[in-house]
Amino acid sequence: MKTAFPKNFLWGGATAANQCEGAYNVDGKGLSIQDFMPDGVMKPPGKTIEERNLKLEGIDYYHHYKEDIALFAEMGFKVYRFSIAWSRIFPNGDEEKPNEAGLKFYEDVIDECRKYRIEPLITLSHYETPYHLAKTYDGWRSRKMIEFYTHYAKTVFTRYKGKVKYWLTFNEINSLWHFPYMGAGILTPKEKLSKQDLYQAAHHELVASAMTVKLAHEIDPENMVGCMVLGLVNYPRTCHPDDIIAVMEENRKGFFFTDIHMRGHYPFYTKQMFEKENIHIQMEDEDMEILKNTCDFLSFSYYMSKCMAKDDSQYEKGKGNLTTGVKNPYLKESEWGWQIDPQGLRYILNMYYERYEKPLFIVENGLGAMDELVQTDQGMCVEDDYRIAYMNDHLLEVKKAIDDGVDVMGYTAWGCIDLISASTAEMKKRYGFIYVDRNNDGSGTLKRYRKKSFYWYKEVIASQGLNLIEK
Length: 471
Hints:
The protein is an alpha/beta fold and 471 residues long. It has 15 helices and 14 strands.
């Protein structure tokens, strides 16, 4: 007999400020590193602001948030994950006093969510370090960033006390390994950075995250703070022991962050690795004690899995979300070459829960596709059955993980309303349940349309997942 998701399961969707808000120079907002990434993460930063009007304007959520949140409420959202643009609160990132207009904007967004009984889930840093901090301090390579970040966190925790319960510190913090500019605001080109540099920057972010957990609990004991990582399942390409070891080594790159966030100390395997790589993390005396302020839950994005091989030169490479591996011959791909693996979501949920035994939250999952708005009997719509199939299959695996005994808090579908792609800075790569009339060239009315998946997800939430089709 089919069973429903838990009654307290947090259904919802997710967006990021830099991909939807627009209004980059409105109400005192400062520039962020995103304002110098006209082509997303696929090309190096450095172009002028005028060359990236599409991302600067986004879907103009800044002026449409009431309309958009009303649509989320119509679907039945229990939670809405969004990010605060740090440079709206502190335009340069290192000011003493915050920008009141920025604080007021997010307070209005929060109040709009609460009007519909939607819980806000706020990401403090979602790939948009204030550009001034990147330029002046080379981002998180500098320990000074801890001071600036925690001052920002304390400011918003205090302002929104009693209105926001769920917080995330850094979005996909492990992306630092692959894209240090986006993940840590580091202007020095990646090829000029040593492993010492990257691990030092990671240490600064991890200390800041732990200090933020402590601050959140002190300011409001009801606060729950999670870490957020890019979740990837790594399979061995063959059963050769060398490929098994390749998976182990790749997994540790991600576990490095989750182990420290959830266990409160550096994992055992770093000792030998640091000695071998001649890495010497500069720490303050209190750092190891600070790291003991562990997160209340672990959240992650999940879009795909990949294969690993000791010698990957003999295999075709796949494409993916910030990181790539060897193609899996048993999986299909999205239009962007991301391999679709619903069962991997059940696997990673069990993997994390076995390791930490703390609640888990899937805060990004979805399918990017080239949707077509067409006229139907019900009006303009997108017949996105491919998205429904993708999400149906992934949610079935979430339910199986819950049945396995995994404590899953909720699920927020990525890009619940169409927004600008982070990886390619395109509008045509759409994830949403809501179509936004905006094109790659910046044209469009910005009018919102409900897709077929809008009504499907509404029924998923209303039925607590009982309408999912098992295969």
